[in-house]
Amino acid sequence: MSSTTEHRFEAAEVEAAIDRLIAYQEEANRRNEWTFFVEACYTPDAVYTCEYAGVLWVEARGIDEIKRTHYGRDMQVGWEGWSFPYISRAAGSVEAITHWMNRGPGRRPDGGFYETHGVSFFTYAGDGKFSRQYDLFDLAHQMKLCDELDAAGLLSPQLRDNWVKPMKRRLLEQIGGGVAV
Questions:
Q1: pTM recorded for the entire structure
Q2: Which entry of 15, 62, 72, 174 is 20 to 30 Å from 26 by CA?
Q3: DSSP 112-181
Q4: Domain 11-176 has CATH 1.20.1330.10
């Protein structure tokens, strides 16, 4: 992984890199193709990490692995109709954070969105690229959201069978072995 702790950048440069990544991801939302921008936004040795509530660890090292896992396998199959709009972002001289939504397809009967919050933490490496991304979101709320989408007939069968059901099993196993109630 690139070391950026001794390097500092102008906040405007880091903000511009985040804005560019957001623009690429907005395009990916429209196209449902998430790998086309990886080389433009990440260093060759970048690390992407997402800890799914302690039940699944996804860590991709290098842009090829990021394309195969996070932006390939994890974003493209079953997520049709979803979008991940950004709410806000903040950047310093090396670190940046974004606040975004996991927004499911369709609308609630009241017109609101089916959505849950997420955040990403980035380490900027210069030249418009990031060397690290760490994603967090509340998996329990995501599972509840998927249940709501399923009840409304809006959850894809692939997402339900290949992601939601295994995640729920892992969550139940994790909490079932702890403190007795």
A1: 0.87
A2: 62
A3: -EEEEEEEEEEEEEETTEEEEEEEEE-HHHHHHHHHHHHHTT-S-HHHIIIIIHHHHHHHHHHHHTSS--
A4: no
